[in-house]
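debug: dumping io for the single-chain case to check the tokenizer round-trip. Nothing else runs in this session.
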Amino acid sequence: MQRVKIAPSVLSADFGRLADEVRSVCAAGADEIHVDVMDGRFVPNITIGPCVVRALREAAGGIPLDVHLMIVEPERYLEAFVEAGAAVLTVHAEASVHLHRTVTRIRELGARAGVSLNPSTPVLALEPIVGELDRVLIMTVNPGFGGQKFIEAGLRKLEQTRGLLETRGRPGWDLEVDGGVGPDNARRIVEAGASVLVAGAAVFGRGPADRGRHAERIAAIRAAAEGR
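debug: decoded output
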């Protein structure tokens, strides 16, 4: 089994101390930093844009930025986010009309290309494009807000996606999961096929009392994922 990557989601970080929070989780053992970009149209929330991603790239040092575009017409912003520092750029199958073109353009720009599926979108939607992908992101909550409960049906979806990637995926692919991930379910998620775990509240906590516990929380998720 490949090493599980832990990607703390800054959606649950303290935005007033965002650079410090990112530096802290990088020092605490994060493998990637997950950045949720929301436009208030594709999902009912608004977060950040390329200028903040650029600042996070500096704060993260050499840790890759995993940028997840939960926006309509993502193809209009690919260059801006890659130039800002996205190492992985993921778009939603539901949001991009010309998905093959979008994925191809991401890779032309020098980033790893990912496609995400909402909970109600079947794995079948990946079949025409799976051989072009570096990453698939399975949403196990309805996107838009952090701290939601994990949707159990996502485990079966991960299994199906893993099977598709193993038979038809390009070399070096990742299978990522986002939504309700924590020590209590990390092992089941990995057993279902995930190799990248996005964790927001489980890493950053829910308030000032949780500051300074990033290393402890990341270690707990990794230990659970690896069955230790």
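debug: round-trip ok. The longest strand covers residues 86-92.
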